Structures are given as C-alpha cells and as structure tokens.
Amino acid sequence: MDKAQDFAVQIAASIAGQINRLNHAIGRSAAWLALAMVLVQFAVVVLRYVFGIGSIMMQEAIVYMHGVLFMMAAADTLLQDEHVRVDIFYARASERRKALINLLGCTFFVLPFCILIAHVSYDYVSMSWSVREGSRETSGIQGVYLLKSVILLFAAQLSLQAISGILTNAAKLVGAKHG
Predict the structure, then answer these.
(1) How many C-beta atoms surround the C-beta of residue 93 within 10 A?
(2) pTM flag (> 0.85)
(3) DSSP annotation of 138
(4) What is the pLDDT of residues 77-95, one digit of tens each?
C-alpha cells in the first residue's frame, strides 16, 4: 500500500473509531433503560394491585423507555454485529468476502434506509413539535414530540454507523488487496 492509501486508511479508521465510540456509549447508556423499565413496571404493578393506585404517566414512561431503548441501541447493535442476518453464506465466507458483503449492505441497504426514514419522518416530527404534541391522556406525559424526535436521532445515529461500516470494510478490502 502506498503512503497516500495508507494515510486514507488511517483517516478512515480514525473517523470510524470515533463514530464507533459514540454509538457504543449511546448504546450502553440506552441499555440502562431496560432496568428502568423493569423497575417502573414493578412499581406500576405494586401500586395498582397492593395500593389500588394507577398511574398513566408511569405506564406511558414504560412505552417511552421501550421506544428509546430500541431506537438508540440499534447503531450499537449494528456495530457489535448482533443484527439480524441470514448466515447461510456469510458464516462460511472469507474475511474479504464478509468485508465486501458488509460494505455493500451498509452502502445499498442501511444508508438508503436511514435516509428514507429521515425523509419520511421529518414532517411527522416537525408537525409534532409545532403543536408540542402531548399525551391523549390528561395525566399522561406531555412530551410525545420528544419521543417522536428519537426517530430522527435513530436515523442519524444509524447513518453514522453505516458510514463507519463503509469506511471500515473499504479499508479492509484495500488492505487485503495490498497486504
């Protein structure tokens, strides 16, 4: 590999590393919502069946946490290679073929999907913000617009992870050709 290609691979690795660290930190932070969901659900059950007290806000909080957990952990799931994949051919593929499959997958599936999600949901989220959409229930969480905003964050975060995947796998392929 010549110096220019080596420099480009180093830059790509640096950018990918920064994206990976960010998405991993967000994913690990979001994972704590699973514990919070269990604790809040336990409190809802105890309040209802022991004390006869219901809380719409607590029930909605569980739904909010569930949505945020999955949307904000998606990029880290892709980073950790724990996403759904048909492993019939991939599992037995060489490292070079896996890099090519991952590169093509990020380029032609993940990134366009994220762009589509962002494009389609932008007006949906904007409209929600314009009216500061809240719960339909009087005692519910009056921040539906905040929850809907997570859709755009999901698209941005997953796009960044797709870019990281493109950079990482392109660098692997360039290195394999010259290594």
Answers:
(1) 13
(2) yes
(3) T
(4) 999 988 877 677 788 889 9
